[in-house]
Write a structure and sequence with these properties.
Elements: H1 6-35, E1 38-39, E2 51-52, H2 55-72, H3 82-102, H4 106-122, E3 129-131, E4 137-139, H5 144-161, H6 168-186, H7 192-209, H8 221-241, H9 250-254, H10 256-271, H11 284-290, H12 295-316, H13 320-346
Antiparallel strand pairs: 1-2, 3-4
Helix pairs in contact: 1-2, 1-7, 2-3, 2-7, 2-8, 3-4, 3-8, 4-5, 5-8, 5-10, 6-7, 6-8, 6-12, 6-13, 7-8, 12-13
């Protein structure tokens, strides 16, 4: 029986998901073209040619296969709340996939999201207590369910909202995942299971980014955005909120980019008298594009915001040194992926 140290498994999990994704993404792209499952340009979108919209299939597949491989390596990543996180993420992925193919009604999608969160809430993925930064623990009681519901559904849709520029959502999700992983292992007590899931998601997302940087060959789609958004939301609950002294603040700092975007977007739409779930072209990334920034510069600006938020969060829990090392490695990898994307364009 092979026994792996927790730190080793975290890195191995990220590497396995990255390698799997590199092989799976091109297969999904080819399948999408053959079946006509592509995102067609319109007045609200910035791409000019049809692009595969099934990136979530590659992200979900490489993530779940990585767990299977870890099981076969005799390291079963069991732990509290793992089943709820994987089940909820898979259900969100399925909902997004159906939406990518059939374009579901926004209210119907919201209803299903509420149902999914209710299921995982019953499985234990919940915000039931908040650690008071001034001492003691605050029991939420009956407020636990609505707070959990708003948090998970909100983050899922927030991630979906920022998926409007090539490479943006993938870059922000990767930074957020690594941040949550480092925060989870820096807590007392540490939460290695949450860190493992976060590292695996980061590996899958990096492989996706190889084909998603401008000019994108594949989009994340609702399937990828909802899946990743659910994992980020649930990991912030299980890996941060239940252990950190500053738990009430950390998730907002880590997930600053999607939270800012969905907050301003929802307020803007409500003030205009429209539904906060109706898509428009006035998100933060749209405003940066209209201000004259290129897609790549827009991605760089918002990714930098995510990195700064992650640095603040890790500094608060005392792991800033590790964070700097991981971010330097991540930036090198992302630079190499962008060069790969540029080489593809020239060919």
């Amino acid at each position: 029986m092979l026994t792996l140290g927790q730190a080793q498994v975290h890195i191995i999990g990220a590497i396995i998901s990255l390698i799997l994704g590199v092989f799976i993404v091109p297969l999904v792209i080819n399948f999408s073209k053959k079946e006509g499952l592509v995102d067609v340009p319109n007045e609200r979108k910035i791409h000019k040619i049809p692009v595969s919209r099934l990136g979530g299939v590659a992200i979900w597949t490489s993530t779940m296969l990585t767990f299977l491989i870890l099981v076969l390596l005799s390291y079963y990543p069991y732990g509290s709340l793992l089943s709820g996180i994987l089940l909820g993420g898979s259900l969100m992925f399925l909902l997004g996939l159906i939406d990518d193919i059939y374009n579901l009604n926004a209210k119907f999608k919201l209803f299903i999201q509420i149902a999914i969160v209710t299921i995982v809430y019953l499985l234990g993925v919940k915000i039931d207590t908040i650690i008071n930064p001034f001492g003691g623990i605050i029991e939420l009681g009956w407020l636990s369910y609505p707070i959990t519901l708003v948090w998970i559904v909100g983050i899922c849709n927030a991630v979906n909202f920022i998926d409007g520029v090539d490479g943006l959502a993938g870059s922000v999700i990767t930074v957020n995942s690594i941040t949550l992983a480092l925060v989870a292992v820096s807590m007392t007590p540490a939460n290695p299971i949450s860190a493992l899931i976060a590292f695996i998601l980061a590996g899958s997302m990096l492989a996706f980014l190889a084909y998603n940087f401008n000019p994108a060959k594949i989009f994340m789609g609702d399937s990828g955005a909802l899946f990743a958004g659910f994992l980020l939301a649930s990991l912030s609950i299980t890996g941060v909120m239940k252990t950190a002294t500053l738990a009430i603040f950390l998730p907002f700092v880590v997930l600053a980019v999607p939270i800012m975007d969905i907050t301003f977007s929802s307020l803007r739409r409500i003030l205009k008298g429209t539904s906060p779930f109706v898509a428009d072209s006035e998100h933060i990334h749209h405003k940066l594009l209209k201000a004259g920034f290129s897609q790549n510069k827009t991605v760089a600006i918002l990714t930098l915001v995510a990195i700064v938020g992650g640095a603040i969060a890790t500094a608060l829990v005392g792991s800033i040194g590790h964070y700097i090392i991981y971010m330097l490695i991540l930036l090198v990898i992302m630079f190499m992926l962008s060069l790969f994307s540029l080489t593809r364009k020239q060919k």
